[in-house]
Design a protein that fits this description.
This protein has 2 domains: 10-63 and 77-87, Orthogonal Bundle (Arc Repressor Mutant, subunit A), CATH 1.10.10; 95-222, H-NOX domain (Alpha-Beta Complex), CATH 3.90.1520.10. It is 50% helix and 14% strand. The protein is built from 9 helices and 7 strands. It has helices spanning 8-27, 32-39, 43-56, 83-87, 95-108, 110-135, 143-156, 180-183, 188-201; strands at 30-31, 59-63, 77-81, 161-166, 169-174, 206-209, 218-222. A 4-stranded antiparallel β-sheet has the order 4-5-7-6. A 3-stranded antiparallel β-sheet has the order 1-3-2. Strand 4 and strand 5 (169-174) form a beta hairpin. The protein is globular, with a radius of gyration of 21 Å. The N and C termini lie far apart (81 Å).
Length: 236
């Protein structure tokens, strides 16, 4: 049997398609023009790689949402990672972890699952808080400013996160979820993670979408006005 010959051109194609996949993971759905700009390539070159990724089932194609100020012509097509494409990135939990949670739920009940998830996110919260404090010794006090620092910390944890301001506040987006396969069956993980985000940004937040429930990105809404700061206890 003859072995496949790996040419430099083929290796470069694989690397470029991995870069395309990484951009779609980190930034969400993008057009071929967006990708060409980010990669420093021609639109035609990017479309060749997108066609290959579509054929492999790693990317889905969709129409861009309608905009009032869009000019004449066909709407631009946007590309997003498919479930198969996401599966190519590391996940923190495997089938053994899922089986373990099922056993906990069956033998000890939902409260035991809730305790487990709280313990799991406690480590994440501590690491993110340390990273945020390191980034700014005094720590940004406004929730939106803290969300930006949190996004950087979550990205280092594998969540490919970003934060942005919107008209009615701000939002934290996680374009990858290392525990999506487990959270799809045990939403307690998402609930515990949302509570962690609220504590770290310093205000009540609302989870609008999750990858575990089939959305393209985990989106958390952050109110525009920070709550009043609680008085700290002083030692007597």
């Amino acid at each position: 049997m003859k072995s496949a010959i790996v040419t430099p051109e083929r290796t470069n194609d694989v690397r470029t398609r991995d870069r395309v996949s990484r951009l779609l993971l980190e930034r969400g759905p993008l057009t071929a023009v967006d990708l060409a700009t980010l990669l420093g390539m021609s639109s035609a070159g990017v479309r060749r790689h997108l066609d290959a990724l579509l054929a492999q089932g790693r990317v889905d194609e969709r129409e861009s949402p309608a905009r009032a100020n869009r000019g004449p012509g066909r709407p631009a097509r946007r590309y997003a990672l498919s479930e198969q494409g996401r599966a190519g990135f590391p996940h923190a939990y495997d089938d053994l972890a899922l089986a373990a949670l099922r056993h906990i739920a069956a033998s000890e009940g939902a409260e035991a699952v809730a305790r487990f998830t709280a313990e799991r996110v406690a480590g994440l919260e501590e690491r993110c808080r340390d990273a945020m404090d390191t980034a700014a010794a005094d720590g940004p006090e406004h929730p939106l400013a803290r969300a930006e620092a949190l996004a950087e910390a979550l990205t280092r944890e594998g969540y490919a996160a970003s934060a942005s301001a919107i008209a009615a506040g701000g939002q934290l987006c996680q374009h990858h979820c290392p525990v999506a396969h487990v959270a799809a069956e045990f939403p307690q993980l998402c609930e515990a993670e949302t509570q962690v985000i609220g504590r770290l940004v310093g205000t009540h937040v609302q989870r609008l979408a999750t990858i575990a429930h089939g959305d393209g990105v985990c989106t958390t809404y952050i109110p525009p006005t920070p709550p009043s700061r609680p008085h700290r206890r002083t030692s007597i």
